[in-house]
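Notes to self, Diguanylate cyclase (GGDEF)-like protein:
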Amino acid sequence: MTGQNPSRAVGFSSIRNWDLWTLRPAALTYFFLVESAVAAVSIWLLTSLGTVSDSDWLRFGAVMFAITVHLMVVRRAEESRRNESAGPHIDLTSVWTFAAAIALPGALAVLATIWMRILIQPIARRQPHRFVFSSASILGGTLLAWLVVHLSGLSLLATGSILPDLGLVLVLIVAAVVNWGAQGMNIAVALKIVTPHTRIKEFLGSRADNMLELSTLGAGAMLGMLMTTHWIGPLLLVFPVVLVNSLLYRATERRAHLERLLREQEQLQARLAEDAHTDYRTGLLNTNGLAEYGARLAERCRRDSQPVTVLAIDLDHFKRINDTWGHPAGNAVLAEVGRILREKLRPGDVAGRDGGEEFVVVLADTGLAQGTAIAERVREAIGEMSVVTTDKHRNTVTLRGRNLPLTADGPEVRSISASIGVAVMPDNGDCLLEAQHCADAALYAAKENGRNQVRVSAGEIRVLPAPRLDGGVEEAREQAEATRSA
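result:
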């Protein structure tokens, strides 16, 4: 494939295996053999320059001029196309090299191909050893095409006879296939040696790339036949080739723009989907996300006959925190609880804020004993929290968990604890909603029996630890206030 960029065949532009000092001995040997064989044949053909006719020199000059104009005009566009290319890069230069292989002597075909590669180097900007190998592959394909055409013995001029003319068409088709196949397979074999874990067909490019290259070779065949009758042929074709190159550049730009828009749209949709399922205050799932992902996890475990434990968590006296220190303090406590849940739970578990100070956790493949132990660890962690925040007057205050010992700040700062209800599927329901209702019922029982504890659904009570004294004092104070109000 003329103009292939080997490093981009399957996205290998950043792989160090193409660095000269890291290449395998087998790769170095293959490169050396290919380059040596092509160089030997080229030098042998160049020795025949003295026998080239004036008309061939005229055709050669026209081809060189066309190559120069083509690559100079499309240089910026070609650099951009190469940067955007994710596979074999087709640069349309084979229209000139294949025409030279058909209409020029071998020595002039070698010079035309070398000149084309010299002009390509500032555009391609590849490492010298990679550029030399690519150039050898392209020159080798050109020489094989020249050999097929000139060994056939058929005249490139129209004879008026059906069979000879059809035979010439067949020869040109074979030469084009040999040119295309030799370059493509040579690059593929080299990449296979460098990266043996990949398959050869991954290096051969897409169908669209190969169809474009074969079309370019077809244009080169027509140009070659035209050059045999008039040397001016390349000058007539240079403008259409530049125009096609420009159209390809515009198409590449448009495709890159559309792909960029598509990626941005996908990222936006993913961000919107995440925002729609995430509680911004805690970083956990919100009610919608909890219902969707929790139900999905519960259904998967049900199909696999695995137990699922549901935890219903509620912060004790959370309204008192908001009333005493203000909503910013309450928000800080919620955020810290969200952090604790993310740290204490496994990656496959689901945790969400189910409104207000209530949280729900769905534990995959977790039975009652393990689920109760996890609930207790969560309760202890919440009861040992220390949250630095501000009160209503913007003074710094540290709210502490009720499981922590008293300090000089007084018992009122020990304001954080949680009651947790535990339910298990399938013992407490066949779906997440039923298990969640059972966990809520166990949570209410924990509230009624002193708070700051874990209670299991279905009448089984697990109080770990017993209600703390300060919690009982608060309960009595609330009941007294309610009585006075009545």
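- The first strand starts at residue 308 and ends at 315.
- The chain has 15 helices and eight strands.
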